[in-house]
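How a chain folds remains the central question behind the approach discussed here. No coordinates are needed to read the tokens, only the vocabulary itself. For completeness, the protein is quoted in full, as a sequence line and a line of structure tokens:
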Amino acid sequence: MSIESLIGRIIEDAKKASSEIEHRALAEVETCEQMAEREVQGVMDAAKERAARSAEDRKQRMITMAQLEGRKEVLKTKQKLIEEAFGKALEKILSLDTEAYGAFLIRLILQANPEGDEEVLLNQRDQERFANGWVKDLNEHLTKNKKKGEMRIAGEFRLIRGGAVLRRGRKEINCSLESVLDSKRNQLEADVAGILFKDSE
């Protein structure tokens, strides 16, 4: 075989080998591209899923926060209405005529279970409108309840809306309307709320 033929054959074999290498390289490149695409798609799908989950979590948090805020506002409104109800109850008691208010005050004092010889401290308005007749009625009620029946209105008054403060030496019993309503508040608040909001549950 001549040199030219040999060279030609080597060149031909080299071309063939080169072509095969090129085909294999292209196939590998294509495989790599497909794998890369699948990987990118997987990353994108995972990112979309994470984003969707994150958006759903955020939405749920926002709904929960909105519900909490709504409940807080409802509670605040209910508390305000309950406060108004107690305020109106106090005003209603204070607006009773002298006879009805005097009878109410006697009942209030008797409920405090006094000894019966205390001084009665009233606010200025009540001190001016209650004369000895009211104290006499109070003492009669006390003696019926087996108490001393020696109460008297003090010469000084207290800064209270209504009711009375009973003083015996250094000991005082606070029967002011503010104090009585406050002490009954926990007990009555649930009942008041039930009346005010029975249709809102």
